[in-house]
Amino acid sequence: MAQKQLILGAHFPGVNNMTVWSDPQAGSQIEFESFERFARAAERGKLDFVFLAEGLRLREQRGQLHDLDVVGRPNTLVVLAALAAVTERLGLAGTLNATFNEPYNLARQLATLDHVSGGRSAWNVVTSPGAFTGENFRRGAYLPHEQRYERAREFVELARHLWDGGDDGHGAFDYQGAQFNVRGRLDVPPLPQGHPIIIQAGDSSQGREFAARSADAIFTRHGSLEQGQAFYADVKARLPRYGRAEADLKILPGVGFVLGDTPEDAAARHAEVRRQQVSPQTAIVLLEQLWNRDLSGFDPDGPLPDFDPDVSAATVAKGRTRQHDDNLATAHQWRELARRENLGIRDLIIKVTGRQQFVGTPAQVADEMNRYVQQNASDGFILVPHLIPSGIEEFVDRVVPLLQEKGVFRQDYAGTTLREHLGLASQAVPA
């Protein structure tokens, strides 16, 4: 039986809890030179795509600007359009919000990106985290949580209808739906790859169903081979009800990696990186997001609060998606773990907040990544280096050649569009 081929994307997340922005080796998170260096390295490694995050409002905590948002974040579509000019084959994926955009305008922008890039565009569909973000927009408030995916689903369906030529095959449309009532004509020709690749980010049951119905790939997270296999089986099993085959949706968890010359070296380096990612200040900030209280007076190396989280609607963290389904249950689990392993606040946060990591020598990381894919825990990975923009270069230089030697990753691009890179069926409209 032929081995599955790995899909590899590279995530430029902006400053977040995984990015060690304070490291002397880190570069700018907003200057175009950083984006260009990152993308050129990814293309040198023959990776499938580069993936940009988006933030529509600077996050706040306890009424103060979040320390990870001090530099802001450039507009995703503008950066991707610029990257199209300095790359040739690399896919260009951007996170774009379905709550605070309109289908005609965004479909037109993505169609333009697909043209200027020669068929390399992708859209990571996300919904708004709430009213705080909505204050920046004419809409003013926000959609209730249960309506956000419904709007996103109809948004994607309408955008695809426009890319397919509308009602008459020549761009005209007259659409009346639950979320949108629009009429007009799209003024962009048919796209090189038919439709931009649609990515969905999220692990909830609602998100999984949206992905099974509407997405080409799902950006997810899981922490073990077994958890990945369970997620993979669950999402793939949803596809037949929408007339889709298993190969029509790619499962791509976001993962970090830490490489070393020996396993011991890699483990020591990983421990150092995690302490950089979770500074004493960050540990308190992250604990506050669960407890929903001002904990600034707590010692980061001391014990967890002995009182429960505030579960009222008001929140100390503004502009963030909800992190925990049940704050009280999660707090109980954290207290039990801290008691069992004698962990202070910072050490606990380091343990419970880490993204899935592949840690080891380049050969060990290549072997483990390949094992996940061959054993159906994923179809590939979206790599999230802790150093921006240089972190992806180490993976390209030390791990990619080993995957190529195994015959599970391309030596060179065979096609020109992102849809071809991912092995997805063409969505081009017949002439």
TrEMBL record:
GO MF, one example: nitrilotriacetate monooxygenase activity
Superkingdom to which the source organism belongs: Bacteria
CDD domains the UniProt entry points to: Nitrilotriacetate_monoxgenase
Top-rank EC class of the record's enzyme: oxidoreductase
Keyword list, A-Z: Flavoprotein, FMN, Monooxygenase, Oxidoreductase
Annotated ranges, domain Luciferase-like: 24-375
InterPro entries with a match to the protein in the record: Diverse_substr_monoxygenases, Luciferase-like_dom, Luciferase-like_sf, NTA_MOA
Binding-site positions, FMN: T95, H145, Y149, S204
Transmembrane segments: none
Enzyme Commission no: 1.14.14.10
Presence of the UniProt keyword Oxidoreductase in the record: yes
Pfam families (UniProt xref): Bac_luciferase
PANTHER family: ALKANESULFONATE MONOOXYGENASE-RELATED (PTHR30011), C2H2 FINGER DOMAIN TRANSCRIPTION FACTOR (EUROFUNG)-RELATED (PTHR30011:SF16)
Family assignment from sequence similarity: Belongs to the NtaA/SnaA/DszA monooxygenase family.
Protein name, as recorded: Nitrilotriacetate monooxygenase component A
Gene encoding the protein: ntaA_3
